[in-house]
Design goal:
This protein has eight helices and four strands, in the order H-H-H-H-H-H-E-H-E-E-E-H. By secondary structure, the chain is an alpha+beta fold. Strands 2-1-3-4 form a four-stranded mixed β-sheet. The chain starts with a helix and ends in an 8-residue tail after the last helix.
């Protein structure tokens, strides 16, 4: 898990508060929304990191953007972070909270890259294969990359299973590049 000590502490505090108040899934959904907002809106992240914009204005903008999109508790948490002048850490805090939530609920993320979109049967097969390997709940993300020609690349954590056609072609090229010619034959 990446992050500074402060971001991890804030994420743990929100996780603990969410467990105590029994709205963990709502907090998770809120933080996923804020994470998506931070990844899609560079202007929002620049606002959070800007030393020029005053805290009062940041609070008003954050409340306007997130009002009716996240729960009141999540909004209060973000307001506390902003009033403590830690709003620049919000994207990292949100990311750490999501990782802590997934670790607590035994959820692992996996990415499947294929040349064409997966059919529902193939997706179920891939999910079953990954579940049998890990014994945990899987959050599957699908990517389409035509450059792999065929097959699939499955990434989960620091592990990768590359069963793509492009990898097989590369291995064949390396074998053919070796000089196996015998002169005196």
């Amino acid at each position: 898990m990446k992050g500074t000590r402060a971001t991890i502490r804030y994420a743990k505090a929100l996780l603990q508060l969410s467990v105590e108040k029994d709205f963990l899934s709502q907090s998770y959904n809120d933080m996923v929304y804020v994470d998506q907002l931070c990844s899609e809106s560079k202007d929002f992240v620049l606002l959070l990191k800007s030393p020029i914009v005053k805290t009062d204005l940041k609070l008003r903008i954050i409340n306007e953007v997130l009002n009716n999109k996240v729960s009141e508790t999540s909004l209060r948490f973000i307001n506390i972070i902003t009033s403590k002048k830690r709003e620049s850490l919000l994207p990292e805090i949100v990311h750490n909270f999501i990782e802590l939530y997934k670790a607590q609920n035994n959820i692992q993320s996996a990415t499947v890259t294929t040349a064409v979109p997966l059919s529902s049967d193939t997706k179920k097969s891939v999910l079953n294969y990954i579940k049998n390997q890990t014994k945990s709940t899987i959050e599957l993300k699908e990517l389409v990359d035509e450059s792999i020609i065929g097959g699939a690349i499955i990434k989960m954590g620091d592990k990768q299973l590359d069963a793509s056609v492009s990898k097989e072609i590369l291995e064949l090229k390396q074998i053919f590049n070796q000089n196996l010619y015998l002169q005196d034959f």
